[in-house]
Design brief:
Elements: E1 2-3, H1 11-23, E2 63-67, H2 68-74, E3 119-123, E4 126-127, E5 147-153, H3 158-161, E6 168-174, E7 180-190, E8 197-208, E9 213-224, E10 241-244, E11 257-260, E12 263-265, E13 273-274, E14 282-284, E15 290-292, E16 304-306, E17 323-335, E18 340-358, E19 361-369, H4 377-385, E20 390-396, E21 403-422, E22 426-447, H5 449-456, E23 458-460, E24 466-468, H6 469-473, H7 492-498, E25 499-524, E26 527-546, H8 548-551, E27 563-584, E28 587-601, E29 605-617, E30 622-633, H9 637-641, E31 645-652, E32 659-667, E33 675-686, E34 694-711, H10 714-722, H11 726-729, E35 732-734, E36 740-767, E37 778-794, E38 799-801, E39 813-823, E40 826-835, E41 838-839, E42 853-854, E43 857-868, E44 876-883, E45 914-922
Parallel strand pairs: 1-42, 3-6, 32-36
Antiparallel strand pairs: 2-5, 3-4, 5-6, 7-8, 7-45, 8-9, 9-17, 10-11, 12-16, 13-20, 14-15, 17-18, 18-21, 19-20, 21-22, 22-25, 23-24, 25-26, 26-27, 27-28, 28-29, 29-30, 30-33, 31-32, 33-34, 34-36, 35-36, 36-37, 37-38, 37-39, 39-40, 40-43, 41-42, 43-44, 44-45
Length: about 900
């Protein structure tokens, strides 16, 4: 059975989007390193697929090039939002991703869903200082107003650019010179009345020193007020969720799990719910009044229910985190001689977020004794009559205040370097870069379980006053008794005692230096042999300091730890382009591209990466290309040194048969080794003479990562322990009753990650006069599509393919297409984005879940830009965009956590219809 639970896309729109993406266009007419369309002088341009400079060279590695005009038409407010415009990207950390949001509200690139640390991010072909322990960089540090182009290499590129380029490279090229002042201002929001955002930018530049010097400065400011709750959208207010069916057996024909609307937590309420003993099913109303509790369907043996009076914690999740940010970038260059240029770059960036993260909670695990001073007398009497000395209570402690997260992330970066030419066609470049990132995070109030347990154990002291039992024997312990019966019953003083402030300061520093040289060695009958070579060095230092409570594991969640880690890397590299044949029958040109890089890590030792590529121009119309590469990624500072803190997950225990929320501690592993990936790409580029201005490319890719660094899901630890793996049983803690109380999950070098599929890219344009005589203007079609064939995780025991899985994997198809009409000063365009549907879990049987197939989502954006006085030296451009015009909801794909997401935020648009209007000036 397939249902569109979120009223998402319809079949005709899906078909239209897919067809447009496959038949229409690529993001740039300069696709797949057709550099001539991206810049006038190909000989002076190095596109990221290769370091070699050679006139007419077309690298065999697939590369998508996005020009500044392409980016402007998307209406994005920062470079990171390109993740929603290029189907090879999967949204990773972002302000609008409730599942995997970065603390500072940042956004990072994640090619092919292989995680952001496997995508190398460059600015002006240089690494940028990371802004978190994962070694990734927030795209907000790049001022979008001065971006010249963005190169996206969708194949392995470690040999050319270094480690981390397993999935590919994103290289943001900034303009080197501005003449005068350029500024823009825009404002937008949604049709739901939220997510208002203001963005302003300005850039100014001038020459000095008789024209030998150039100076530019650019600044950008943006302020977004966010979307506080998922419940602000109609599709979420139905309280979707997945609940376990306690009546299921393998033979009774019932579903093991049920996906339904109107689902609730069944082991806690906001005022408290008794979950054990003779009083089970009693909840507490205002003032602590005992009330009967309507559990809804599945009242026994299940932590979730359909119907009933329990809360749905999904509704409190943020849909968009509010963020305020600014960036200032400067560049000064001076031609010391006609062949040597000195340049200096500097960046200062800061972002701030301040929002409520989640409610405080205790799911069915608060122990209340019969002599509790706040317990209503009628309930105490019932317990005494039954011979019961205590019961368990579940409570969502919203009256403690939701856990509030404040994050400030500041980055500084400076570069000084020299670049020049010698001989006829040789170039060289050297630079030193220093950058640091300082992140401050405060989270409060977070429950301290030890204090809560003492405060809950409230009794009458000999003087008749209510006191903590522990205080009677230890009068100086400072315990404050707490009343948990009923919403609003806890006193402010008791809440302060049972909660605390989580604080962490993280400083990441990076020193980097590089030297490279490129030029032709000599010529053969087929053309010149061109080479590039160089050496890189960098040192990353990570230091984190946390509060005393976190260091001592005193909080219910979180508990990050102090970190002191350092990684240094030495690299030497070389690349050569060797012409093999030229101007022969069926061989217009044939070139071999070879690259090699030797890397020595202070943490994991030495490793080698290489690339072999073949570029075969069959005719003027047809080009074939292929690459085979060994790509590498060493473990980052977070994986080697950092405790990831404490999280909760719903764990099914095969030993007891019970499912419960269990704290998961993510531990570091200093023994991790480097990942090694074998990447294969081969494809065709076709530009038919019979259809001028049309170009299409089709490329197959396969990325096979061995020794992949992953965190094994906590459920896997439990399952493997139950299956007899005693080594994994050691990370699982149980109490006297045999229940799991904690799992310490660590990072390991997994056996294999395998990702393969096909990318499509095309472009076509035609003059309007060819359709309507006498009419001016041009109509262009552009599009990208990707088909995911395999997305396999193989840990040596279990092999799972998540291609086509939309819960925790990726759909088979994703596509983007743009249609643009240009006539003089006016551009009007439509952007269609399609994200496919799929199944819930490939390992499920027909009885595992009642709904297992889901439609995808198609969204349409309409925009325009109009230039006033286009021939003037001071033009003004007005532009606007309506995103998700039809307000398409995402498919409803809830996971099985008690505080869960209702869809895959990394894949689908959850914001809804949005509007933006702005203006640009040039002076």
């Amino acid at each position: 059975m397939k249902r569109d639970l979120g009223a998402a896309s319809r079949g005709r729109l899906i078909a239209a989007a897919s067809g447009l993406a496959l038949l229409a266009g690529g993001w740039s007419a300069a696709m797949a390193q057709e550099a001539g369309a991206a810049a006038g002088d190909v000989g002076e341009l190095v596109v990221t697929a290769s370091r070699v400079r050679q006139l007419g060279f077309q690298a065999p590695t697939p590369t998508t090039i996005l020009g500044a005009e392409d980016i402007r038409k998307t209406g994005i407010t920062n470079i990171g939002q390109l993740s929603t415009q290029i189907p090879q990207f999967i949204a990773s950390e972002s302000p609008s991703n409730s599942a995997v949001r970065s603390g500072g509200g940042g956004s990072v690139f994640n090619l092919r869903g292989l995680t952001a640390p496997r995508t190398l991010f460059l600015v002006n072909s240089r690494r940028h200082v990371p802004n978190n322990p994962n070694g990734t960089t927030d795209n907000n540090v790049v001022p979008s107003s001065i971006v010249e182009r963005v190169d996206v290499v969708t194949g392995g590129a470690s040999a050319a650019w270094g480690s981390d380029a397993v999935a590919g490279v994103v290289n943001v090229i900034l303009r080197k010179e501005i003449d005068g002042l350029e500024a823009s201002m825009q404002y937008g929001g949604t049709s739901h009345g939220d997510n208002q955002e203001f963005k302003g930018s300005a850039a100014w530049g001038a020459r000095f020193g008789g024209g030998r010097g150039r100076f530019m400065i650019a600044g950008e400011y943006a302020d977004n007020n966010g979307i506080p709750n998922v419940s602000d959208r109609d599709w979420a207010r139905a309280n979707w969720g997945v609940v376990a069916n306690p009546n299921y057996t393998a033979t009774n024909g019932q579903f093991q799990r049920i996906l339904s609307a109107n689902t609730h937590v069944n082991n806690a309420t906001y005022g408290g719910l008794i979950t054990s003993g003779v009083l089970a099913g009693t909840q507490f109303g205002n003032g602590g009044v005992p009330l009967s509790y309507n559990a809804g369907l599945f009242p026994a043996g299940s932590s979730g229910s359909i119907g009933g009076e329990g809360p749905n914690l999904n509704l409190g999740l943020n849909l968009m985190v509010p963020i305020e940010r600014y960036t200032v970038y400067t560049r000064t260059s001076y031609d010391i001689t006609d062949n040597v240029t000195l340049f200096v770059e500097g960046t200062i960036a800061q972002s701030k977020t301040d929002y409520e993260l989640i409610d405080n909670f205790n799911f069915g695990n608060i122990t209340i004794n019969a002599d509790n001073a706040f317990l209503p007398a009628s309930l105490r009497a019932a317990m005494v009559a039954a011979g019961q000395t205590s019961f368990q209570m579940g409570r969502v402690n919203a009256d403690f205040g939701g856990i509030h997260d404040y994050n400030q992330n500041a980055t500084r970066r400076g570069v000084i370097g020299l670049e020049g030419k010698f001989g006829k066609d040789w170039t060289w470049n050297t630079y030193y870069q220093f950058g640091d990132n300082r992140e401050v995070t405060n989270e409060t109030p977070i429950v301290k379980p030890a204090n809560l347990n003492l405060a809950v154990d409230a009794v009458f002291a000999p003087n008749g006053q209510v006191a903590c039992r522990s205080t009677l024997t230890n009068p100086g312990n400072g315990c404050v008794p707490i009343n948990l019966f009923g919403v609003g019953s806890p006193s402010a003083q008791s809440v302060r005692y049972v909660t605390g402030l989580g604080h962490r300061l993280t400083v990441y520093q990076q020193h980097a230096a590089s030297f490279s040289v490129a030029g032709p060695l000599f010529s053969t009958w087929a053309g010149p042999i061109a080479v590039a070579a160089g050496a890189d060095y960098r040192r990353d230092t990570l230091r984190r300091r946390v509060d005393a409570d976190s260091q001592a594991n005193n909080f219910l969640i979180g508990n990050p730890k102090n970190i002191d880690g350092r990684i240094s890397v030495k690299e030497v590299f070389g690349e050569a382009v060797i012409p093999l044949a030229k101007d022969m029958p069926l061989i217009k040109s044939l070139e071999l591209d070879l690259a090699d890089r030797f890397v020595d890590y202070s943490t994991t030792g030495s490793v080698n990466s290489w690339k072999v590529g073949l570029n075969y121009q069959v005719t003027d119309e047809l080009r074939l290309r292929a690459t085979r590469s060994r790509d590498i990624r060493a473990p980052n500072a977070n994986e080697l040194f950092a405790f990831g803190g404490t999280q909760f997950a719903a764990i099914r225990d095969p030993v007891t048969g019970r499912t419960s929320q269990v704290p998961i501690i993510n531990a570091p592993n200093p023994s991790l080794g480097a990942e090694k990936a074998d990447t294969t790409t081969f494809g065709v580029v076709y530009e038919p003479k019979w259809l001028p201005r049309f170009r299409i490319s089709v490329d197959h890719y396969k990325i096979d990562i061995r020794g992949a660094i992953v965190t094994i899901p906590a459920q896997d630890f439990v399952d493997r322990c139950a299956a007899g793996n005693q080594a994994l049983c050691q990370v699982i803690q149980r109490n006297a009753a045999g229940d799991i109380t904690q799992i310490q999950a660590g990072r390991v070098n997994l056996s294999q990650l395998l990702n393969s599929g096909v990318d499509f890219e095309a472009a076509y344009s035609l003059p309007i006069a060819s359709l309507f005589k006498g009419q001016s203007g041009e109509l262009s079609f552009r599009g990208l599509a990707t088909y995911l064939h395999e997305n396999i995780t193989n840990d040596g025991r279990t092999k799972i393919d998540r291609a086509g899985v939309v819960l925790d994997g990726q759909p088979h198809w994703r596509a983007n297409g743009m249609v643009t009409y240009s006539a003089g000063p006016l551009d009007v365009y439509a952007n269609i984005r399609y994200v496919g549907g799929g199944v819930y879990n490939k390992t499920y049987t027909a009885q595992s879940l009642n709904i297992q197939d889901f439609f995808g989502q198609t969204t349409v954006a309409l925009g325009f830009q109009y230039t006033l006085k286009p021939q003037s030296s001071r033009p003004i451009q007005i532009y606007g965009l309506v995103s998700n015009v039809f307000d398409q909801a995402p498919p409803i794909i809830p996971d099985q956590q008690q505080q869960a997401t209702m869809t895959n935020f990394a894949l689908y648009d959850t914001i809804g219809r949005s509007f933006m209007l702005g203006a640009r000036i040039k002076y």
